[in-house]
Amino acid sequence: MIAAAPPGAGRAIARWVPDCDARTTQYVVVAAGPEETYRAVLDANLAESRAARALMALGRAPEWIRSRLRGERLAPVAGRESRLRDVVAGDTPWTVLVDDPGSELVLGLLWTPPAGGAKRPTAEWRAFAEPGFAKVAWGFSIASRPGGGTLLTTETRTSANDAATRRRFRLVWLATAPFAALLRRLALEAIRAEAEGRRSS
User: Fold this and answer.
1) Rounded to an integer, what distance in angstroms lies between the CA atom of residue 21 and that of residue 31?
2) Distances (CA, A) of 12 to 106, 141, 142, 181
3) Residue 22 main-chain phi, psi, to 5 deg
4) What CA dihedral angle connects 181, 88, 190 and 150, to 10 degrees?
5) pLDDT of 8-50, one tens digit each?
6) Would you say 118 and 107 are in contact if contact means Cβ atoms under 8 Å apart?
7) What is the pTM of this model?
8) 2-200: what fold?
9) Which is more confidently placed, 113 or 37?
10) CA distance 153 to 44
11) Using CB atoms within 10 A of its CB, is residue 180 exposed (0-12), middle (13-18) or buried (19+)?
């Protein structure tokens, strides 16, 4: 079962984006321990399903339009494999804000709606207040369940730095929120399958 997360889900992410213009939470119960679940968060192929790849491509539509208007070349998509371990370790727009193995992982993006962004070191991320940007934090919270297994929660928080950016974000959010929610559900399913597959093997 995947549903809206229970109250109190996610702890570290709220310290990075305490006041948000949009907040979404979903969770899944995983028949594996916290350590196995944490490793699965990093190692699961989030682009394994055709639906996930289609949604990822749809999410890049604003970047594609901007690049065409500017006559720029857009970097190719990742293809049939996309793992958070590569996002954490690679040269991507995401900044690792919290990495507490077996407990929480929080990534941050400084976004210029509807496309583009900037990257800052973790130490500078919280205080970044340049107009034109929205802070996006994407977190995974992992907690043992009293009856066994693990509760895995994903939460996304977005907060614009100024009123004009907030208006642009809200327009984008109206169009993309249902697709983003479906992509998160597919990501949770992929992580659960990875964690439970590790346990059975």
Assistant:
1) 34
2) 7, 9, 12, 21
3) -150, 140
4) -90
5) 445 789 999 999 999 999 999 999 999 999 999 999 998 886 7
6) no
7) 0.82
8) Alpha-D-Glucose-1,6-Bisphosphate; Chain A, domain 4 (3.30.530)
9) 37
10) 15
11) middle
